[in-house]
Design goal:
It contains 7 helices and no strands. It is about 75% helix and about 0% strand. The chain has one domain. By secondary structure, it is an all-alpha fold.
Length: about 130
Amino acid sequence: MLELVRSFQSASFVRAFRHIISLPDDVGKKEISELLGADAEDFVHIVALTWESLGVLVFRREVTLDLVDDLFSGPILVSWRKLSRYVSEQRAILQRETAFEWFQWLSEQMTEREKKSPPTPAHIAHRAWRA
Protein backbone atom coordinates (compact mmCIF):
# COMPACT_ATOMS: atom_id res chain seq x y z
CA MET A 1 0.00 0.00 0.00
CA LEU A 2 2.83 2.37 0.86
CA GLU A 3 4.31 1.91 -2.61
CA LEU A 4 0.96 2.81 -4.16
CA VAL A 5 0.77 6.02 -2.17
CA ARG A 6 4.37 6.87 -3.07
CA SER A 7 3.54 6.54 -6.76
CA PHE A 8 1.16 9.47 -6.39
CA GLN A 9 3.91 11.54 -4.86
CA SER A 10 6.32 11.26 -7.77
CA ALA A 11 7.59 14.49 -9.23
CA SER A 12 6.07 13.70 -12.63
CA PHE A 13 2.61 13.01 -11.17
CA VAL A 14 2.68 16.13 -8.99
CA ARG A 15 3.79 18.27 -11.92
CA ALA A 16 1.13 16.83 -14.20
CA PHE A 17 -1.60 17.16 -11.58
CA ARG A 18 -0.69 20.80 -10.93
CA HIS A 19 -1.10 21.50 -14.65
CA ILE A 20 -4.42 19.66 -14.85
CA ILE A 21 -5.99 21.48 -11.91
CA SER A 22 -4.96 24.81 -13.46
CA LEU A 23 -7.21 24.12 -16.46
CA PRO A 24 -10.74 25.48 -16.82
CA ASP A 25 -13.50 22.95 -16.15
CA ASP A 26 -14.65 20.72 -19.02
CA VAL A 27 -11.82 21.68 -21.35
CA GLY A 28 -11.23 19.98 -24.69
CA LYS A 29 -8.18 18.56 -26.39
CA LYS A 30 -7.43 21.66 -28.46
CA GLU A 31 -7.68 24.03 -25.49
CA ILE A 32 -5.51 21.77 -23.34
CA SER A 33 -2.77 21.86 -25.96
CA GLU A 34 -3.05 25.64 -26.24
CA LEU A 35 -2.96 26.14 -22.47
CA LEU A 36 -0.32 23.59 -21.49
CA GLY A 37 1.90 23.48 -24.56
CA ALA A 38 3.92 20.61 -25.97
CA ASP A 39 3.68 18.43 -22.86
CA ALA A 40 -0.10 18.80 -22.52
CA GLU A 41 -1.04 15.28 -23.56
CA ASP A 42 1.65 13.81 -21.33
CA PHE A 43 0.26 15.69 -18.33
CA VAL A 44 -3.27 14.52 -19.10
CA HIS A 45 -2.23 10.92 -19.55
CA ILE A 46 -0.10 10.78 -16.41
CA VAL A 47 -3.08 11.90 -14.32
CA ALA A 48 -5.86 10.09 -16.18
CA LEU A 49 -4.02 6.79 -16.40
CA THR A 50 -3.12 6.98 -12.72
CA TRP A 51 -6.80 7.32 -11.81
CA GLU A 52 -7.62 4.65 -14.40
CA SER A 53 -5.27 2.21 -12.68
CA LEU A 54 -6.62 3.06 -9.28
CA GLY A 55 -10.18 2.51 -10.53
CA VAL A 56 -9.33 -1.02 -11.63
CA LEU A 57 -7.67 -1.74 -8.27
CA VAL A 58 -10.77 -0.55 -6.42
CA PHE A 59 -13.13 -2.52 -8.66
CA ARG A 60 -11.09 -5.69 -8.15
CA ARG A 61 -11.02 -5.01 -4.42
CA GLU A 62 -7.25 -4.78 -4.26
CA VAL A 63 -7.71 -1.37 -2.64
CA THR A 64 -10.79 -0.27 -0.70
CA LEU A 65 -13.02 2.52 -1.91
CA ASP A 66 -12.91 3.96 1.62
CA LEU A 67 -9.13 4.30 1.44
CA VAL A 68 -9.24 5.88 -2.01
CA ASP A 69 -11.94 8.23 -0.78
CA ASP A 70 -9.79 9.31 2.17
CA LEU A 71 -6.65 9.73 0.09
CA PHE A 72 -7.77 10.95 -3.32
CA SER A 73 -11.48 11.75 -3.67
CA GLY A 74 -10.88 15.47 -4.14
CA PRO A 75 -8.11 15.12 -6.72
CA ILE A 76 -10.09 12.47 -8.63
CA LEU A 77 -13.24 14.60 -8.78
CA VAL A 78 -11.36 17.76 -9.73
CA SER A 79 -9.46 15.86 -12.45
CA TRP A 80 -12.70 14.49 -13.90
CA ARG A 81 -14.34 17.92 -13.80
CA LYS A 82 -11.42 19.28 -15.81
CA LEU A 83 -10.97 16.36 -18.23
CA SER A 84 -14.41 14.85 -18.91
CA ARG A 85 -14.79 16.62 -22.27
CA TYR A 86 -11.27 15.62 -23.24
CA VAL A 87 -12.14 12.00 -22.45
CA SER A 88 -15.27 12.18 -24.61
CA GLU A 89 -13.24 13.62 -27.48
CA GLN A 90 -10.58 10.92 -27.11
CA ARG A 91 -13.23 8.20 -27.18
CA ALA A 92 -14.57 9.62 -30.45
CA ILE A 93 -11.08 9.93 -31.97
CA LEU A 94 -10.11 6.42 -30.92
CA GLN A 95 -13.56 4.99 -31.68
CA ARG A 96 -13.31 3.29 -28.33
CA GLU A 97 -15.79 3.89 -25.53
CA THR A 98 -13.48 2.10 -23.11
CA ALA A 99 -10.85 4.86 -23.18
CA PHE A 100 -10.40 6.07 -19.61
CA GLU A 101 -13.41 3.99 -18.52
CA TRP A 102 -12.06 3.26 -15.05
CA PHE A 103 -11.17 6.90 -14.45
CA GLN A 104 -14.79 7.79 -15.19
CA TRP A 105 -16.09 4.88 -13.09
CA LEU A 106 -13.95 5.92 -10.12
CA SER A 107 -15.09 9.51 -10.41
CA GLU A 108 -18.72 8.36 -10.47
CA GLN A 109 -18.14 6.27 -7.34
CA MET A 110 -16.72 9.30 -5.53
CA THR A 111 -19.61 11.48 -6.72
CA GLU A 112 -22.19 8.99 -5.41
CA ARG A 113 -20.44 8.79 -2.04
CA GLU A 114 -20.42 12.56 -1.72
CA LYS A 115 -24.14 12.74 -2.55
CA LYS A 116 -24.86 10.45 0.40
CA SER A 117 -22.36 12.03 2.75
CA PRO A 118 -20.78 15.38 1.84
CA PRO A 119 -17.05 15.44 2.52
CA THR A 120 -15.94 16.75 5.87
CA PRO A 121 -12.30 17.76 6.23
CA ALA A 122 -10.31 15.34 8.41
CA HIS A 123 -9.22 18.10 10.76
CA ILE A 124 -12.90 18.66 11.57
CA ALA A 125 -14.30 15.13 11.31
CA HIS A 126 -11.61 13.64 13.52
CA ARG A 127 -10.90 16.55 15.82
CA ALA A 128 -11.43 14.41 18.95
CA TRP A 129 -9.15 11.57 17.78
CA ARG A 130 -6.46 10.48 20.19
CA ALA A 131 -3.66 7.97 19.70
